[in-house]
Amino acid sequence: GLSQYSSDPRTEWDLSAYSTRDQVLEAVRNLRYKGGNTFTGLALTHVLEQNLKPEAGARLEAEKLVILLTDGKSQDDANLAAQTLKNLGIEIFAIGVKNADEAELKQVASEPLELTVYNVLDFPLLGSLVGRLTQVLCTRIKEKSNKENADIPVNMGPQLSPTDLKISAVTSKSMHLTWSPPPRPPKKYRIVYYPSKGGISKEVVLDGALSSLQLSNLTSHTEYLVSVFPIYDTAVGDGLRGVTSTLPLSSPRSLRVSELSHNSMRLSWKAAQGATQYLVLCSAAPDGAED
């Protein structure tokens, strides 16, 4: 599977889209470059929420690997998003080109760094990494697959996933989430939320016995994407997703002018709920003296 990102990540194709090497190579040849910013944290969150889920072709029993290719320093918190993936057993390989920040690559990548971090001076030099990286990836998959762990059958997917996400009590800076827990209770829930038009993603980890959460300190008049993931010892259930907008801040109303004189006036208005201060701007109309 492949996703491309700038300030807004975009899935190019899912894990289940192609079944042969030739099909994948043809898709790569037809790929259109996406310019823009470098929100690596948002991109890693997108990969977890959109690309590593059963509907996109991810199998619960399969090893999960993410290869990050970047030519710049992230403009959001890539480390936090990367740590979330690593905590879920997803291995990250980081490849930097040109202006990539090597310190950030080492923060994002999984251990051991001598196998998972690569950096080249320009794009044509990426070809020199292919042989070694292919060998390392294949070896890592074999090593992880051979470890004894309790595999969860694929058909248990619905048993692992919560349902019926409801968002209520929405204000200008908060909202309340509730959901129905899955038949098999998770160890924890991971709740991820971020503005739909790009921004820093935040997350809350909740005990698996709980099934509601109050999100606070949100930005007013902003659309948020919300995801709820159940976390088990050896798997991550399919996430619940929702979208809603916080309310705009309330405005003062009924502005009145009184007590006019040659150099003064009195203003009065109905208060705006929750306001702690007011900013009053005054200027001569239409284009007279200074404000």
TrEMBL record:
The keyword Transmembrane does not apply. Residues 161-250 form the Fibronectin type-III domain. The keyword Secreted applies. Residues 1-133 form the VWFA domain. Its main location: secreted. PROSITE patterns: FN3, VWFA. PANTHER family: COLLAGEN ALPHA, COLLAGEN ALPHA-1(XX) CHAIN. This is COKA1 protein. The gene is Col20a1.
